[in-house]
Amino acid sequence: MDPLSVGIIGLIATLVLLALRVPIAAALGAVASVGIFVIFAWRPGAEFAPQWAWQPTFSLMANNPYAFITSYTLSTIPLFIFMGHLAYEAGFTTDIYRAARLWLAKLKGGVAIASVVGCGGFSAITGSSVACAAAMGRIAIPEMLQFGYSRGLASGSVAIGGTLGSLIPPSVLFILYGIFAEQSIAKLFIAAIIPGILSLLAYVLVIYIWVSKRPQDAPVPDEEISRADRMRALRDCWAIVLLFIAVVGGIYVGLFTPTEAAGVGAATTLLLGLVLGRLNLTKIFAALKESVYQSSMIFVIAIGGKLFVNFIALTGLAGEITTWIETSGVSVFVVMALIVVMYIFLGMFLDPIGIILLTLPLTIPIVETFGFSLIWFGVVVIKLLEIGLVTPPIGLNVFVIKSIVGDRIPLESIFGGVAWFLFAEIFVLAAIIGIPWLSLVLTAFV
């Protein structure tokens, strides 16, 4: 059988399995394994000969994933995840939210703005959007409801703020993208700084416009906050600022690689937590437990993704698509529009890690055909995945918030609150795509 035909069938089979809610790791791994076997056993112009396929198939299935999982670069992921959970257990994330709330409480929508700022601060020390939304949801939403904020604004601001965990470095998604796209993770981290700040400012602007139109949705808290309280809360943020400078600053000035930065960040967080008396054995164990769980989940999906990448490479499907694009004369704007639509559509149903591993074997060759920077494209992809985290019907961050608030806030209210912010997301996405300088200007110094 023609490898290209096997590739098309395999891609369709993968999408069908995902539509049937088969776990992404199982879908990618199963289709890739069967597809690789068929390619080796049923060569073009020859009869089906399975005896020739067992050895190369098992060799590929055993060696490539093992080499991938044991790679030095991939160790960055569990270290950054551990760093984030340690920071949460030590209360460093609460510090930055509390400082933002005390300084912004008297503004229109100040507590909601503080929630978004707190999400940005949390994102600076962890690479997970879900963890960011879950942590800030437990802290900020009950407080906003207590102050009389509308349910849509309280839940929507935290759900959208949590997506910053994907964009603001360090980010697990950027690490995976860098590994599979063979790009510098350090440059990807630096490239995301300006788009991340732009996204945060856009969310703040939406909150301001929202409460200007509907002031009843965000009453100003009736509490006395002294200047001493504000300064004390600001001083308490020194630990999280130190962590961000140690990790991102160290990468930016070339003191260490992203992998080394992850180790430095985790060790510094642990040391600060112990010295300040904020961590004990129970909290450290809880951080380790969550880190092992999340890392294992990511690694299992990555193994399936690695097999799928090898399968697509053997079929030549990506090469055929790029050749068709080159010969058909399709406009670059049409191609980018189709890529955007594809990622947003998949984001409605799949988790971000699965989308990255499913699509990169096909989209990267296309982007390279037009001579675009893969660093810039990485920022575009992560921004699209960020939008998918709050897009119905799945909207992973929305369901995380729902699991936290329970019956206090209906699911439709959370999606309704997030809908306001989707206009800001579209604006920022258009700016990132239309002005590559936003992503690439800082990478020139790395």
TrEMBL record:
InterPro entries for this protein: DctM, TRAP_DctM
Boundaries of every TRAP C4-dicarboxylate transport system permease DctM subunit domain copy: 12-438
Pfam family for this entry, one: DctM
UniProt keyword terms in alphabetical order: Cell inner membrane, Cell membrane, Membrane, Transmembrane, Transmembrane helix, Transport
Domain of life: Bacteria
Membrane topology value: Multi-pass membrane protein
Compartments it resides in: Cell inner membrane
Xref: PANTHER family: C4-DICARBOXYLATE TRAP TRANSPORTER LARGE PERMEASE PROTEIN DCTM (PTHR33362:SF5), SIALIC ACID TRAP TRANSPORTER PERMEASE PROTEIN SIAT-RELATED (PTHR33362)
Family: Belongs to the TRAP transporter large permease family.
Protein name as annotated: TRAP transporter large permease protein
Lineage, opening ranks: Bacteria, Pseudomonadati, Pseudomonadota, Alphaproteobacteria, Rhodobacterales
